Amino acid sequence: MSDKYCVIGNPIGHSRSPDIHASFAAETGQDIAYERCLAPLDGFAETVRGLIERGYRGANVTVPFKLEAASLATRLEERARLAGAVNTLRFENGEIVGDNTDGPGLVADIVRNAGVPLTAKRVLLLGAGGAARGVILPILQHGPQAIVIANRTRATADALVAQFAALAAHPGQVSACGFEDIAGAFDVVINATSASLSSSMPPVPAAAFSRNTLALDMMYGNKPSPFMEFAASHGATTRDGLGMLVEQAAEAFAIWRGVRPQTAAILEQMRSKR
Fold it and tell me: From the CA atom positions of the chain, what is the Rg in Å?
C-alpha cells in the first residue's frame, strides 16, 4: 500500500503539487500517493488529525494555513521556528513535526537553477510578512554581504532585523528601511510582497535594478508580473516563483523520503505547459 501524503489548503484545486510529487516519485522509485486536501477555513487542526488517523505520513500546507500549522506542530525545526510558519508536516512517533522549505526552495532556485551565487552579494527583500520571514535564514547561510528588508511599515521590518540579528555574520548584515529609503542597486531583488496577487507593483525605485540584477517574484503565473516587467525595463534579469515552487517541493520530498529528486526535467515541463 502506498504511503499517503497531501497538500492542505483553501482553495486547493489550483495546486500543482500532486503533479510535481508524482514526477518525483516516478523518478526516485518511491511508492507514494499524493493528493489535494481542501480544509474548512475553521477546520485545519481537525483535518490534520483526520489525516493522521487515516495513516497519512505527512502533508504540505499552503494558504491560508501556514501560521496555524506552526501552532499545531508539536515540534518545530529551526527554520520553521524562525519563519513562524510551516509548509511541511511529517507525522512520526505520535508527533507533528513542522518544517519550512520555502526558503531553501527559493535559494536553490536562485543559486542552482538561475546560477546566481548569493555569497558576498547585496540582497533586497521586499516585504516583511510570512513569505519574507521564511527566506532570511537560508539566504544568510550563503553569506551575503547584506540583506536589506524594505517594507511599507518600517517597524515590521525592524522587528525582523532584531529577530535575525544574532544569526548575522557581522553587524549590519541584516538591515531595514521603508520603501522610500531604498538606496543603490542590488545584486538580487526578491519580491516577497503580495502585490503580484492583485497585479500591482510594490513601490521599489528603478535605481534598485541594473543589468547585473536578478529580480525574482515569489508569485508565478502565465505572464510576467508588473514587478518583473518593471525590473526588466530597467535592465534586470527576471524570474518568477515557479522554480521556487518545484524546489521547495523537492526539499519536502527529501524530508519525507530521505532522497532528493532532480528538478530540472519537471521544471522545464511545467514551464513549457504555461
Answer: 18
